[in-house]
Amino acid sequence: MRGPVVVTLRDEASPWGVSASVVLHTLLAAALALMPLPKPPKRLEEERVSVDILTPLQFEASTRRSPAPTPSPLPAPEARTPAPTPDAPQTQQPSAPAMIRPTEMLSAKTLADPRSRQARADLATFASDERMVQLCNLEAMDQIRRWRADFQPERVVPYATAEEKITGTTIAANGAAFRSRKNWYSLKFKCQLARDGESVIGFEFLVGDPVAREKWDELGLPAVH
Which of 42, 53, 111, 152 sits 20 to 30 Å CA-CA off 223? Predict the structure, then answer.
């Protein structure tokens, strides 16, 4: 297992001290009418009826029925287009928390402080990639401290739950962790360095939940300095 790549921030490396860290660290029936029965008609006097005598041919002609008209075919029922089925409502997925994007980078000021002489000397001994990682770790601690005064980051492990990715001068650490006041917290950050890899020019981060104490040893997170 690779040794931890960490940065430890000592009190003497902070350019502001305790007082400055406090400032830096917020529907919702119809009724039928009875019709009178019609009266029977009065019986009329017997009328004489004239009777015509018809020959068989005349009788046949008078009784012959015209063929019944062929009923026209009923129009075919119109095909009905089924009504469109309304789409099932889509469940909206909760959006991921937004990354915090500071506008001012802080690690350069920290390293420029005379009390950070030893830290500068140590950085000079690292290979290029390791030095960039350590600069980003330092930026993470400075930015977290300014973002929340109740956090006092003193150490960062960029590969606690996932290996950090280095692409050119950009470092993405989605499984990092930092220690503050004897507790470890999950951390995600993206760090952009200058072309020479010697300074941080862009940074964004997101602090997550505390890391369960029983997982510290498994993740290589030391309980003490």
Answer: 111
